[in-house]
Amino acid sequence: MRLRSTALAAVAALAVSAVPAAIPTAGAAPVSAPASSPGDIVASAPSAFHPLPGQPTNTRAWKIHYRSTTADGTPNTVSGTVIVPQDGRSGPRPLITYAVGTVGLGDSCAPSDNLPHGTAMEANLIQQLTLRGWAVVVTDYEGLGTPGVHTYTVGPSAGHAVLDAARAAQRLPGTGLSPTGPVGIMGYSQGGQASSWAAELQGSYAPELQVKGTATGGVPADLLEVADYNNGSYGSGLIFMAAAGQDAAFPELKLDSYLNPAGRLLVSGMKENCVAIDAIAGSFKRISDLTTRDPLAQPDWRARLNQSRLGRTAPAAPVYQYHALADELIPYGVGRRLRSDWCARGANLEFDTVWAGEHVSGVITHSLAAGNWLADRFAGRTTHANC
Fold this sequence. Notes:
Oligomer: single chain
Number of helices: 14
Largest sheet: 10 strands, mixed
Radius of gyration: 19 Å
Helix content: 25-40%
């Protein structure tokens, strides 16, 4: 795979995500409550939303902890951030449940740790949504900012976290959000996997949510193919991050038993740092460089990775899916295959090829189109499916 200068520049720009940050409580004590159902609030406290340090946004924000569900159906607690514009709007306000792309495995990488300080990587994209008058809830995902290792790339867990974040935002007192208000799902890259899983699960897991559509891009729909594509290349660090995430969700995989000393050192460091450091530290390494045997060749590992494969269920609501033709991290063919799988199952799907740019730039160049597509869904306009 060719190393792309734009991607390297993006990694350098994202280095701020490795800086630890603390959430201010704005002088108010956290509010706690018993939680018994997915989406119930466990605790909440005032927070803030700043796309850049000190930049005002005319929004009110809360950090929340809420009930969700692991990939295997066990109750867990996930953290996140609810952001509501203070624009005097009346009537049902649309809510976007937003799934961020890869930020890293360390707790300091969590969006809720960075959104109040202007150091969150996708904050400007989130601001595009709040400027439309939409509320946004941003999940931290399982294990990112809460006890345990982040279950990075475990699709069902991420899908649950995204859907339960929407439930939690609608149940949080003081937001003005209605439990029957319109909901949109949005995400790219890791967030593309999470939002796509949320779209597939919504009909069975959260049917009461009034989901009008999902905008999802750069989706790693087949982790085994993505791993093979990145092995030994610029994106190889993502393979080892994903292995740590899968092992966190499924300890019986025993990742440590496959790693050699160099592999143990790398993965241990990844669990404490954010994507800018992890991606550089793990780049241009082959699986064979850091293991005594390849875990991805083992039946139990393959079964768990295939558990996160997308395309087996048609989303209940319409989908806008986009993918860069020159994506150097998630092969374009993986995105096209997801489109084919969803279309074969009767999905209401509009697919868009990003003709210029690569993986990182795709989320930026198509953020307006994705937002406009969701605006059309909220307005009840007809979709333009192109299966």
